[in-house]
Amino acid sequence: MLKYVVASLFRVTWGFLLAAVIAIPLGLTIGWYRRAGMALSPLVQVFRPISPLAWIPIAILWFGVGDLAAIFLIFVGCFFPLMLTAMSAVHNIPAVYVNVGRNFGLSAADFIYRVLYPAVVPQLIIGSRITLGIAWLVVVAAEMIAVNSGLGFLIIDARNAGNRYDLVIAGMIIIGTIGLLLDLGMRSLERVKSFRWGYSED
Amino acid sequence: MLAPVRDVKLRMERVGMAFERDGKSVSVLEDINLDVSDGEFICLVGPSGCGKSTMLNLMGGFLAPTQGSVTIDNQVVRGPDPRRILVFQERGVFPWLTVEGNIGFGLAKLSRAERRERIDHYVQMVRLQGFEHTFPSDLSGGMQQRLQVARALAVDPDILYLDEPFGALDSITRLLMRGELLRIWQSERRTIIFVTHDVDEAVQLADRVVVLSARPGKIQDVLTIGILHPRNISSASYLEHRDDLLKKIGLAYTA
Amino acid sequence: MNALTQPSRWEKFFWPLLAAALLLLLWHYSVIWTATQVFPSPLSVEKGLAELFRKHVLWSDIGDSLRRVAIGFGTAAALGIPLGLTLGWYPAANQVLNPLLQILRPISPIAWIPIAIVLFGIGDHAATFLVFLAAFFPIVVACVSGVSNVPTMFRRAGRNFGLSPAQILARVVFPAALPQILIGLRIALGISWLVVVAAEMIAVDSGLGYLVIDSRNSGKRYDLVVAAMLLIGLIGLALDIGFRRLEKIRSVRWGFGHES
Predict the structure, then answer these.
(1) Residue B230 vs residue A160, higher pLDDT
(2) Residue A50 maps to which CATH number?
(3) Which of A34, B202, C117, C240 is deepest in the core (most CB within 10 A)?
(4) Neighbours of chain A (3+ CB pairs under 8 A)
(5) How far apart are CA B171 and CA B142, in angstroms?
(6) CA torsion B169→B170→B176→B178, rounded to 10°?
(7) Closest chain C residue to B153 measured between Cα atoms?
């Protein structure tokens, strides 16, 4: 059982991080240059409603059945939400901050480091929390279909090979709990003081 | 025109208010005794936190006093009632209703014709003609406050409570609004109890000014402003009253 | 931000079309350069789409998927909104039910599939049930949140004007919470669309999701796979845009900030 939990978490971590590393900088850039946003936003909007699971045939085609396919699916599931979050975060930077940065004659690198990044981080964290939740959902689904290990596989297998519904329920509870823990973990990140300014006082 | 002394409309007898906070009892108001006559314009003045808004909420029936009693027309106040409407400082109007919708909000019990008539009357009174179908988000702050007053007046209350209603407006709009309020009050006389921390506002508007001390709020003083309306804010008597009030509040702040 | 000039109206169409055209070209040429036998080129996808249209299968598949979303989402809304409003209105009830909701919520609807199959067998009802589950929780949460975010001032005004609690709920709290409820509904609709496709891949034998899986399994028709994927994306987008239109209705528009 524990092996499966580790397998699922492993895939989620890789898929999510890969997506974050590519989608967030890309999203920030696209959000910044208005015309780039105008060009690419509609395309992203078309890809976003496509369930990551619909990518399964392509995933299997490119990566065969196994870990990589699952990671690819999680990547796809995380990529678009994260990119949209980054774009939205840039749009929501108060114009005041941008003007101050320009007024003080900051270089591009300086501006990104000292104004852009602190301004977008709170929203990125919230978006990441939600996307992580999505990633967790996708990994379970992907494992049901395209892989031979992990919690999702456990559920399907327990039913198929002998109607072990006790294992099915146990699996579901574990999935729910881990999902909750991931969510709580991200929320505590939101509480870290230097990020807190981005959230209204409760 | 001086407000003739009529029957007592609202009476607060030995009213005290204490809140529980972190297990301790915090006394916000103590031993408040006040008689308000029908048709009077009363201002409550005092430093921040002295309990002015609490007093208003007690009078309105949104809070129950921990000591003493509040009576209106000799009946103990037991809860909010459309006969005494509270106007808030900002964002009190319902954003999903138009001007007409807001003013008509409390008029569900009237017939269509009556409701129509009332709405038109109060739209005119607060000078929002032409904006009947406008939503509050398209109105300025001053217009929104006028709308709130119209909504309050439309249900024909006996008493109007205003909790720093002009506090969120710029100073020019504030001056204009004071004039508007007086005009409305003089054409449809009701009892008004008005909370403010602006000394000029109090002297300009009120028949009597009730000065509250810092927490725990007690009635420090009650000043009678005996000047006829319209009041010349440069006249000697006005300035005298103003100085008087400032002095009294000066005391209030160092208490 | 970078260009101080406002982009003109024609640009709103020009740039996306340019990007789409570039993407298509890129796709087309990478298929040719990698000489892949299986992955479809844009042209073959287009032909595949035409084929599906001609065979009339497509309409029934689209109809099936939409129908399941309609019923599942509709039921979730019909049950979830009253429940959410009640929980938001009575915080005590919320205290009791909230922990249960929080545990059930992260369980992927996909994980409910075995139970769905047990309860409903393979077919329509299982998929509708899964859509219902997926939409239910976001709707309830949005309603609870919408109600508790109604400023106390509004509730007080309601009491002040002599409204009964039921009237306050209907005439003050509900309109005030409506923007947030609509956002929750829109998100739930998006989730429903995702889930119905996923459910159809596993538990049903019709619908767009099934089309994706089936096209691959029976004949490696990747052109149809991609065609179906594109359709899924476009319909999902259409649903989202349609819903956003609702947010423009005047008596709700106040609740949405001026979006650029």
Answers:
(1) B230
(2) 1.10.3720.10
(3) B202
(4) C
(5) 11
(6) 50
(7) C161
Interface of A with C in 146-165 (CB under 8 A): 152, 155-156, 159, 165
Q: Please name which of B217, B255, B220 lies closest in space to residue B27, comparing C-alpha atoms.
A: B217
CB atoms within 10 A of CB C50: 12
Count of Cβ atoms closer than 10 Å to residue B5 Cβ: 10
Convert the pLDDT of each residue in B63-116 to its tens digit.
999 999 999 998 899 889 999 999 988 889 999 999 999 999 989 888 999 999
- Helices in chain A by DSSP H: which ranges? 2-32, 34-47, 56-63, 67-91, 95-103, 108-111, 117-146, 151-160, 165-191, 193-196
Rounded to an integer, what distance in angstroms lies between the CA atom of residue B152 and that of residue B83? 10
Q: How far is C66 from chain A (nearest CA, A)?
A: 14
For residues B124 and B150, what is the distance between their CA atoms, to the nearest angstrom?
9
Segment A159-181 shows an average pLDDT of 76
Facing A50 at nearest CB: one of C102, C112, C229 = C229
Closest Cα to residue B156, out of C162, C44, C236?
C162
Measure the N-to-C terminal CA separation of chain C; round to a whole number of Å.
13
ipTM, two decimals, is: 0.82
Q: Is A9 on the interface with C (CB under 8 A)?
A: no
The DSSP secondary structure of C92-149, one letter per residue, reads HHHHHHHHHHHHHTTS-GGGGHHHHHHHH-SSHHHHHHHHHHHHHHHHHHHHHHHHHT
Q: Enumerate the H helices of chain B as residue ranges.
A: 52-60, 99-103, 112-125, 141-154, 171-187, 199-205, 236-254
Return the CATH fold of B8-83+159-254. Rossmann fold (3.40.50)
- The label of the residue with tokens 């609509």 reads C182
Q: Do chains A and C touch (3 or more CB pairs under 8 A)?
A: yes
CATH number of C42-251: 1.10.3720.10
* pLDDT tens figures, B124-175: 999 999 999 999 999 999 999 999 999 999 999 999 999 999 988 998 999 9
Domain coverage including residue A77? 2-196
Q: Do A152 and C111 touch (CB under 8 A)?
A: yes
Q: Residue A17's pLDDT is what? A: 92
Q: Which residues of chain C have pLDDT under 70?
A: 1-7, 106, 257-260
The pLDDT of residue C171 is 92
Q: Is C254 within 8 Å of B96 when comparing Cβ atoms?
A: yes
Q: Which amino acid is at B38?
A: D
Asked whether residue A165 carries a pLDDT value surpassing 50, the answer given is yes
A165 CB neighbours in chain C (<8 A) are 114, 118
Q: Does B104 touch chain C (CB under 8 A)?
A: no
Element at B27 (helix H, strand E): strand B24-37
Q: Assess if residue A186 is contained within a domain.
A: yes
CB contact under 8 A, C175 and B81: no
Residue A201 lies inside a defined structural domain of this protein: no
Q: Which two tokens stand for residue C160?
A: 């002040």
Contact A163/A146 with Cβ under 8 angstroms? no
d(CA C54, CA C34): 31
Chain-centroid distance of CA C108 in Å reads 15
Break chain B into its structural domains and give their ranges.
Answer: 8-83+159-254, 92-156
